[in-house]
Amino acid sequence: MANLADRIASFFSGNDSNTDEGLRDLFISELKSVYYAEKRAVDALGDQAEASTTNEVRSAFLAHQEQSRIQVERLEEIFRIIGIKIDTHLSDGIDGLIGDAKRVISETESGSLTRDAGLIIAAQKIEHYEIAAYGSLLTLARTLDFSQSAELIEKTLEEEKEEDHKLTILAQSFVNKRSKEEEEKHPGSHHASRPVPHSSDSDITLGGPLGV
Ligand SMILES: [Fe+2]
């Protein structure tokens, strides 16, 4: 009997006909759940834009909403390419993250910068979910030699990564703005003198979009 390493290698190289069937089912199941997530994200981005305080945050959400509509169409194209009916799988993961974003809106004051900070954090959590989902889908598509689908998924994955980066930059400029306002209100206070993270320092491994 093949050892574990050989079995894993054959699984991921797609050389095992039994696993090939299983991987195709897994691909379809993941496709349906990312389709569900993307459609929910389109609606959620509209709510987040409406609730946001600053024009910068609002336009970032609206621009990504437009991009997400195109991503939904790309997923529909993949359903057509592999010849299955367009369908969704419910996903508790995205439902939970969108629920968190809604809670930010209900728990923060309308017109406050705190609300925008909370919305950026919630949006970036959704982005990370999508990056994980598209990344896995891409690996499956490549393993199964679904090259046309892989190309479409890769395009979306790159867009999601860029969006994640944009949110990080937005969060940093937001922290700068907040610091400046605090400095004006309370000159010399320790809040204002707190160092603002540099863009190259900010990474998901360093604690999140606000880099703190
Ligand atoms: Fe998306």
UniProtKB/TrEMBL annotation:
Pfam families: DUF892. It comes from the Bacteria. Gene3D superfamilies: 1.20.1260.10. Residues 177-212 are annotated as: Disordered. Residues 178-187 have a biased composition (Basic and acidic residues). PANTHER family: PROTEIN YCIF. This is Ferritin-like metal-binding protein YciE.
